[in-house]
Every structure is written in C-alpha cells, then in structure tokens.
Design goal:
Blueprint (H helix, E strand, L loop, with lengths): L5 E2 L8 H14 L7 H14 L3 E5 L2 H11 L5 E4 L6 H8 L3 E4 L22 E5 L10 H11 L2 E5 L7 E2 L2 E2 L6 E5 L12 E5 L2 H11 L3 E3 L2 E2 L10 H12 L1 H19 L5 E3 L13 E5 L7 H10 L2 E2 L26 H9 E4 L7 H15 L2
Parallel strand pairs: 1-15, 3-4, 3-5, 5-6, 6-9
Antiparallel strand pairs: 2-10, 7-8, 9-10, 11-12, 13-14, 14-16
The chain binds pyridoxal-5'-phosphate.
Length: 372
C-alpha cells in the first residue's frame, strides 16, 4: 500500500472496450468535429442530466470563460475572488478586463457578498464568483447587488458539475455559468468545458463566437475563437455520463468516511458543506488550525513521505501572482480571510476508486501527527 503514490485525484475510466463502439461510430461517420453527432447528443444529454435549458460545449473551461465574457461584451472592471484556480482571473486579463479582488467568506470560502458593494466603481460591469469546491455561492445576495448596480454575473462553475440547491441546478443562477470537464474534474471529457445559458439567443451568440464568428460559409459576425469540442471528447463525455451517478456515490462514500474518521482530531477543521441539496464531493478541503502541532506545509510535506500527495488548493492566492499583485485590490489587507485560509488549507485525495484502507491510512497518519 505504501509503494503506490496517492494523488489528490484520479479520473474515473470505464473499461477501454466500452469506448470502442463510440470510436467505431466516429470512424464510420468520418465527422471528427464541428458539431457532429456525438457533440449534439452530449449537449442534449447534459441538458437533461443537469436540468438546464441550454448548454454549449467547449474544448476546455478556460476558452469557455473567455468566450462567456465576450458573449456578454464585458469590459472595464470585474469583481472576482482571489481564492480560485488562476484561470478565473486570467480569463479577465486576456479580455483586457481589470480584475478587482474581493475577500471570501470564512465559512463558505466563496466571495463574500457583504464586501462586493464597496468594490464597485463606475467601470464595474460584472461579477465573476466561483462556486469553490462545488459549494454554492450566496447566489441571492449576489443577484441583488447585480440588479441594483446593473451588473452581469458570470459564475465560474468549474467545480460545480451536478450541484443542486433546493430550486434545482446551481447552474441556473446568474447570466452565464461556465463548467470545466478537465481530466481532474468530477465529470471529464479529457479536456473540455461548457457554458450554460438561459435562452436560445444567447446560445446562438456563443455558438458563433466559439466557431470563429461564422454564421454560414461566407458570413462572419464576430471576432470569434476556436472553442469547439471534438467528437472524440464528446464521445468520452457520453460514456462518462453513463457512470456519473456511480461516480458521485463513490465520492460521497469517501467524503463520509473522511468526515467520520477526522472528527475529533484536534486542529483539523473539515470545511462544511452548505446550501446544496445535491453536493458533488469534488474536493475534500481541511483547514490545519493553530492548535495542530505542525503547520499546513509541514503536514503537506510529511504526507509525501508516506506517498500521499495532497494539494494546497488554493495557495498561493491568484492575487499573489506577478501579473496581479500590483493591483490595489490585491493588497493583503484587502484579502485577510483569503490570505489566512490559503495558508491553512489542504485538499486530501478524493476520487471514486480511492480505497477505504487508503483513507484510513491517511487519517491515522494525520491523527498520529496531531498527538505528537
Ligand atoms: C479547472 C478550472 C478552470 C479551468 O478549466 P480548464 O478546463 O482546465 O481550462 C477554471 N476555473 C476553475 C475554478 C477551475 O478549477
């Protein structure tokens, strides 16, 4: 058990033989991309599974974020969180938009709505929150502010596949939601992503933008990009979707086991779930508090000695990277909660095939370190 490295995530792969019929169908059709049969079918099945009206598939989540901002013609300044994967802010910078960082809530670790209003300026055009770890943002407070100030809301929902609140899919909130289907995510197409939008007209614009702006052979209506998902990626999505309920159940089992075993260990705080009626167990973040004998980084390094590779999501904060740290909103004093959480957080391995004995081994190791 000690010899095999355990990483924070591992993709769910069905038997290779199950993928072959999909490949045969692609070979047969000779359509490799540009909205072929697999692509159309995956869009339809995802709408059904997620419970949303319109979805547009992409070659990855980052291009989907870039396109979402273009689709709504966002300019000027956008309010966002520093506690995320760097692509969130990069999508703003690539669009010539200035990110304005706002601190996070200490419980949900999502953008703190109470701090948004004071960050709004005449240049602000939108808010880009992240459903961090798949835990829903305070969508109502965010929408209220957006309505008051006439701002768009684009959710980076890269972690939030299949997450629901009491009203249904978390992806129905805001003007657009963006998913990632990267290999490390709960649902994957090797590389991939999508934009969820509320109406056919917006979907049409997104479709134009993701295909160079083409409407027909001779008409280009926008400076589009190539954001198309290929047939092979869409086919893998169709296969993955057959297993998604099983994937979520296996993740839930790992999550429950961790929560059970970790309870009562001094100095280890499990980040609580809240606000969802269906969670996706995409990450298992814990906070290593002051009363734990080791620092977060010491524990992170020590876990490597037993071949366990936890990850410090999210450290460093986006606001600490060189292209952001000069911004006034990147000042540590503006982001005290995010700064503190980013020093303490550790994401433990969680994935469908993670065995009970491995979870037990990880937790006993943490327990023994807590008693030194
Ligand atoms: C994974 C991720 C992205 C980027 O998605 P890709 O498909 O890898 O381009 C964006 N935002 C967040 C929060 C992510 O976790």
């Amino acid at each position: 058990m000690d010899d095999k490295p355990v990483f924070v995530t591992q993709p769910f792969l069905p038997e290779l033989s199950e993928f072959l019929p999909y490949l045969e169908s692609i070979w047969e059709s000779k359509v490799l991309t540009n909205g072929g049969k697999m692509h159309q079918q995956l869009e339809a099945e995802l709408c059904e599974y997620l419970g949303v009206e319109h979805i547009s598939l992409f070659n990855n989540g980052t291009i989907a974020l870039l396109t979402a901002l273009q689709a709504l013609r966002i300019t000027g300044e956008v309010i966002t969180t520093p506690y995320s994967f760097v692509a969130t802010a990069h999508s703003l910078l690539w669009n010539g938009i200035k990110p304005v960082f706002v601190d996070i809530d200490p419980v949900t670790l999502n953008i703190d709505p109470a701090k948004i209003e004071s960050a709004i300026t005449p240049q602000t055009t939108a808010i880009m929150p992240v459903h961090c770890y798949g835990h829903p943002c305070d969508v109502e407070s965010i929408q209220k502010i957006a309505d008051n100030y006439n701002l768009k809301v684009i959710y980076d929902a890269a972690h939030a596949f299949a997450v629901k609140d009491i009203g249904g899919s978390i992806l129905r909130h805001g003007d657009l939601s963006v998913l990632s289907f990267h290999a490390t995510k709960v649902f994957n197409t090797f590389e991939g992503g999508a934009i969820v939008c509320p109406d056919a007209k917006t979907k049409q614009r997104i479709e134009h933008l993701k295909n160079f702006g083409f409407v027909d052979e001779v008409t280009v209506v926008a400076p589009g990009i190539n954001g198309k998902m290929s047939e092979i990626n869409a086919a893998f999505g169709l296969l993955q979707l057959k297993y998604i309920d099983k994937i979520l159940k296996l993740r839930e089992d790992v999550d429950s086991l961790y929560r059970h075993l970790l309870s009562g260990i001094k100095g280890v705080r499990v980040v609580e779930e809240s606000g969802q009626s269906q969670a996706n167990f995409s990450y298992f973040p814990v906070l290593i508090e002051k009363d734990f004998p080791l620092t977060r980084d010491e524990l992170y390094e020590k876990l490597k000695t037993i071949n366990v590779f936890a990850r410090r999501y999210f450290f460093p904060l986006i606001s600490e990277f060189p292209m952001y740290r000069g911004l006034p909103s990147a000042a540590k004093s503006n982001l005290m909660v995010a700064e503190s959480v980013s020093q303490r957080v550790l994401c433990l391995p969680i994935y469908p095939s993670l065995r009970t004995e491995v979870v037990e081994k990880i937790v006993s190791f943490i327990r023994s370190e807590s008693m030194r």
